[in-house]
Give the backbone structure.
Amino acid sequence: MRPRTPGKAPASPVRKAKPARKAGRRHPLATVALLAIGLGLTGGAYAAFTTTTASAEEPQVAAASQTSVDEGKKLFQSNCATCHGLDAQGSSVAPSLIGVGAAAVDFQVGTGRMPMQMQGPQAEQKPVQFTDEQVKALADYVASLAPGPSIPEQKYLDGKGNAAHGAELFRINCAMCHNVAGAGGALTEGKFAPPLTGVSAQHIYEAMITGPQNMPVFNDLNITPQGKADIITYLKYIQNNPSPGGFELGSLGPVAEGLFLWIFGLGAIVALTVWITAKSN
C-alpha cells in the first residue's frame, strides 16, 4: 500500500467529456412540434373557411327557425300552458312535453286532438284549431326544449312501399286494436282505437313513433322506417280498393257478421216459415 503524501488532496477521477451533438441532427421533440404546428395551421384554416361559409349561408335559416320557435312559444303560453305548464313541465292534469318531439305535437295538434275540449278517457279528434304554420311553430318550440321524434321524411309517406309486407306487419302489430282492415275497435275504460281511413300518411307515421293514447311506441328497432312506409302503403291500398268479399259490414269482423246473420238471416227464415204455414192453412 502506497503511503499518502501529507498535505496533498487525493486526485479526483478524470471524467470523459461528452461527445458533441452531431451537426444537423434534430432534437427528439422537433417532429412532435412540427406536427403540432401543422395541425394547428390546418385546423385554423378549416375553421376560418367553415365560419366564412356558414356566415354567408346560414343566417336566414337560423333566423327563420328562431322566429318559428318564438312564435310557437307565444302560442303555447296562450293556449297550452294552462294544462301543460308555462315551461311544458306538465301538471296534475296534463303530462310533461319535454322530449316528446315535434312529431307528437304535429300529430296531436294537427288532428285537432289538442287542445282538448274536455277531460275524458282520451282526446278525441275534432276540427283543427290552428293553421299549418301555427302547428309547425308549436312543434318547433316543443322540439327546441329537448330532443325527441321529429317530423318523418317525405320519402316514407308517398305510399309506394310494399303493401304485402305492410299487411303482414299490420296484422302482427296493429290489427288486435285497429282491426285487420283498419276499421278501429273498442278498448277498456271507455277508450278506443280509432279507424285509420282518411288519416294522412304523416299522421299515421307520427302515431307509430310517438304512441298517442293507449298506443305503444314503435321505434325503428321495432319497425324500421321502411316497414312503417309499407304499413302506410297497405292502409292506403285497402282504403282505395273495394272489398273483394262484397258488402263489408263496416269491416268490424265476425261479431258484426254474426249479429247480421242472427238478426236478418234467422229473421228471414222465421218469416218464411210463418208464411209457408199460413199458406198451407
